[in-house]
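Dear colleague,

Thank you for sharing your sequence with our group. We've completed the structure prediction you requested, and as agreed, I am returning the results in plain text so they can be pasted directly into your records. Please verify that the sequence below matches your submission; if there's any discrepancy, let me know and we will rerun it promptly.
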Amino acid sequence: MTGKHGGAFKRLVLNDFLFDRLRSIEGRSILELGAGNGYFMAAALRRFSGQRPERIVITDISARLLDLAQKHHRVAGAEYRRLDVRAPFAFEDGAFDLLIATMLANELSDAGLACMLEESFRVLAADGLALLSVTHPDLVERLHRRSELKREGRGPLTMPGSQGLRLPVTRRSKAAYEKKIARAGFDHKDFEVFPSEEVLREKPGLKKAGRVALALVFECRRRAGTVP
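Please find the predicted structure tokens below.
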């Protein structure tokens, strides 16, 4: 329902922004968390055509989504595994050079996010890179002020998505993300990602939010001298 390639914003803007931060995948061990239908790594291999990663592990909590990923976006040689980021990862320390989590951290509780970050730190190589993108906190707050965030019973807080789909989201400030990232042992840079005019033409409802970034991207590296 969100689109075979992740929806207009991801397809037209965010994916390319993340690819630019990756720079290269040649010889790298790559772990993707919350991969959904698996479009991202397939698109990354097209973007970095001719480069050969050493290892690719594509994970999601949903077995059904992993089945769809292998059916529609299968990456030759990749490992597909169920993984709940709110629990310890079944990987060795320092096993990966690149870790990618696209629009996953914004769905997690504080405890779940803390676990994901701590485990990401543990499995990342000393000189590795973790790229985390989240729904921008400013956008979430604008939706809150306009009463567009909803909760049914004891279910998660949700925001409007494509095709009438409600997407889980957590109200969390940029400062709160930064604090948790630092506590896990990472140094980071952050980047705001805005919709293009093409995105706004495809999703005119976004114009109601005004001039606001849709995503916040954290480029994380292990702080010098820290150990898992």
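Summary note from our side: The mean pLDDT is 92.

Kind regards,
the structure core
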